[in-house]
Amino acid sequence: MPYDESGQYYPSRGIDGRMILGGIIALIGITLYMSQTQVNPVTGKKQHIAMSVDQEKSLGLQAAPKMSAEMGGSIDPETDRRAALVAEVGRRIVNKSDAARSPYMDNFHFHLLRDPKTVNAFALPGGQVFITLGLLTKLSDESEIAGVLGHEVGHVVNRHAAEHMAKGQLGQLLSVAVGVGASGGDDGGRTASMVASMVNQMSQLKFSRDDESEADMLGMKYMAQAGYNPTAMLDVMKVLKEASAGGRTPEMLATHPLPETRIEAIRSILKEDYPNGVPKALSRGRKLNWQPASER
Fold this sequence. Notes:
Radius of gyration: 24 Å
Distance between the termini: 79 Å
Order of helices and strands: HEEHHEEEHHHHHH
Shape: globular
Helix content: 40-55%
Largest sheet: 3 strands, mixed
Number of helices: 9
Strand content: 5-15%
């Protein structure tokens, strides 16, 4: 044991066992994350993914009924023209774009949710895509539906949810590692762990914003490949801007970029992809004349 010149014991200042254990946990987390890599067959991008395509499909199918029930349930496309149109536009995007080369091609399903107040659309891993009645009835033509659904198809094809799960697992392990390494007799370990968790959450928010921007870009590409005019995405953003007016979350803490930010990015993409203007062959599709939303 270490003693000073007067024979008084003092604690060793060497490497603490807790720090070694914390380092081991961190190393395991990083090694696991880095080893879980797959190449996306559509984008060619190397991604860190913690599950297989079949697992994504299974997870999405299991979660779909619960997600649907939370928003009033899905409207049957066999008996409702609005739900039928959502399914028709969704399948056209998948069948006529690069999304057709994805392993989810036959697993895509497009749900119209009965919720008339919530303005939202989202996708689950593996190809379950949802749009609420509250958003659908604010859209004015078929190409705007294509913009919304193309964006969500972009999330699925790019495996954003699976990427987030892998990053989340890494972040959790690193937070544990920091907490273990900094633990001691005082409250320092708990505080350090809380700080590490906050940093992990903030990093995930940035990844989310990056994913939304990527999904906008791919959604425009997919809808154009399916014959829809990608300028419709600007009108979709205006709808979202109006819906978010009156109480929005600051962009730095939001999972989505603000509509204004997305509008500027979309304009830049249009200018780069169509320097001579969007071809006339790309259509806005049918005009929509929605009756007031009602339960059917």
